[in-house]
Design a protein that fits this description.
about 500 residues; alpha/beta; Rossmann fold; 2 domains; nine-stranded mixed β-sheet; six-stranded parallel β-sheet; about 40% helix; disordered C terminus
Length: about 500
């Protein structure tokens, strides 16, 4: 069996893996020979030219170091100040510095040069996320002929947003060098296909750029999930039960509305709190009987846009408290720190409403975790943004437009007033979908596609999409007509 080589921006550290993805990828490597390759987390004066191996919790890890300047340009710069906001359709928040792309490319070249000597001819390489889009191109230029797959953990941008990204043609050409590109949702495959079929090569500088040929690249939606069974067990663990008891002592019979997110402008946190504010304003009977808890640990707080999101959220939470709080009742609690999974599982289980309302998101695993942690005899209700990838597989949630805070407020009221029979019916369907799209089957499904015979072409019944060359494009409606959610 071929070795599996997993490549990501950061390599896993010592101790328990945080999150279902890390657990699933560790499991892949524990069951098949291979290693994990990426940045060590160390910044040095000179970049690494060779990777060093280390065994961490039984896994073979190959790591390189980056210089401070290269890391800033590659990570904080091009990856998170240009690609992240653009892929999330926040072009107004993108900061463009031309030299960042040079650093982004340079780090991908460094990855490729350090990785290539470690590869055997039949190794299968699985590259993760937007930091490493050019890696296949860099490996191919060095002579690699391995099967190489790429998985995007964030949304794929619309064509207009893609055109706004500097060097977008080079990035798309980079994606064409992968054998398999995996997306979170069918909407992302459709956006990719729209560019592939209707690309308008730039003529900037008087040199017409040749259209990109995607005919050898398979593109498919692989909805990532969590481990709902594990979360169900975790939700009744001693640590989770302890958290529930702590909250019950404070809340009494108040029903809990829960949000759990990184402090990121893509998560729609100010709009979420504004919707809760409208819920209280329009439904005075609910005051004193509900409480909102928003857990939002900071992320990338050195980037200006994240600091501004934090300041905005502070202000709106203060406004809600000032307007509705009473001496013996607080309408909300806002916590800027992370909690362990057992504590979160307890919070999920006791919440009457899980509020997952990003403005645009990949899958959003919080929705999966909330579903997995529910009490089957008294489940809570998931209020979910229709702009999260999870909306495609969780239609039984209350789907909302997070920009419309009145609509979200009404969904909150419906969730709080929903009878037990309907809550059970919705949760049963949601749990079945979460089990179908679990993280273990996601990893196996992607690798099965990646390791299949390179010359095999899909039959009419398979849920895959081979993009035609731009010289003979297939129609988008025809290409998408046979698309159905992939089996877990």
């Amino acid at each position: 069996m071929s070795r599996i080589v997993i490549v990501s921006n950061r390599t896993p550290g010592k101790g328990p893996a945080a999150g279902g993805l890390a657990v699933a990828l560790r499991k892949v490597l524990s069951e098949r020979e291979g290693f994990w390759f990426g940045w060590s987390g160390k910044l040095t004066d000179r970049p690494s030219t060779e990777a060093r191996f280390e065994t961490i919790d039984g896994l073979e890890i190959a790591q390189i170091d980056l210089t401070r300047d290269d890391h800033h340009a590659y990570y904080a710069g091009f990856s998170n100040s240009i690609l992240w906001p653009s892929f999330h359709l926040r072009l107004d928040l993108a900061t463009i510095e031309s030299h960042w792309y040079e650093g982004y490319r340079r780090v991908n070249q460094q990855f490729a040069r350090a990785l290539l000597p470690l590869l055997k001819p039949d190794d299968v390489v699985w590259v993760h996320d937007y930091h490493l889009i050019p890696l296949a191109s860099e490996l191919r230029q060095l002579g690699a002929r391995n099967r190489i797959g790429f998985y995007l953990h964030i949304p794929f941008p619309t064509t207009d947003a893609l055109y706004a990204i500097p060097h977008h043609e080079e990035l798309m050409r980079d994606l064409s060098r992968y054998d398999l590109v995996g997306m979170q949702a069918k909407r992302d495959v459709a956006a990719f296909t729209e560019f592939a079929e209707h690309q308008a090569p730039s003529t900037f500088g008087g040199h017409k750029v040749q259209a990109i040929d995607f005919s050898r690249t398979e593109v498919e939606a692989f909805p990532i999930g969590s481990d709902p069974g594990a979360f169900a067990k975790l939700a009744v663990s001693p640590a989770a039960t302890k958290m529930v008891h702590r909250m019950r002592r404070v809340l009494g019979e108040q029903r809990l509305i829960l949000g759990v997110d990184r402090l990121d402008y893509s998560k729609g946190l100010p709009q979420r709190v504004e919707a809760y504010e409208k819920l209280l304003a329009h439904n005075s009977r609910l005051r004193r009987s509900v409480h909102m808890l928003q857990v939002a640990p900071p992320s990338r707080d050195s980037i200006r846009e994240y600091q501004e999101t934090s300041d905005t959220l502070d202000a709106i939470c203060g406004r809600v408290m000032g307007h509705f709080a009473e001496p013996d009742w607080q309408p909300l609690t806002y916590v800027k720190r992370a909690y362990g999974q057992p504590s979160l599982a307890g919070l999920y289980r006791m919440a009457r409403v899980g509020l997952v309302t990003p403005l645009r998101d990949g899958m959003n695993l919080v929705a999966h975790e909330f579903i997995g942690a529910q009490d089957p005899d008294d489940p809570g209700v998931l209020v979910l943004s229709r702009f999260a990838g999870a909306a495609e597989i969780f239609p039984e949630a209350l789907l909302v437009n997070p920009f419309d805070t009145d609509e979200t407020a009404e969904a909150l009221r419906m969730a709080l007033d929903m009878p037990l029979d309907e809550r059970k019916e919705r949760w049963t369907a949601l749990m079945a979908s979460a089990q179908k799209h679990n993280v273990d089957d996601w990893a196996v499904g992607f690798l099965d596609h990646l390791t299949q015979n390179a010359s095999a072409k899909p039959s009419a019944t398979r849920d895959v999409l081979y993009l035609a060359s731009s010289t003979q494009p297939a129609s988008l409606p025809e290409a998408m007509a046979s698309q159905t959610p992939p089996a877990a």
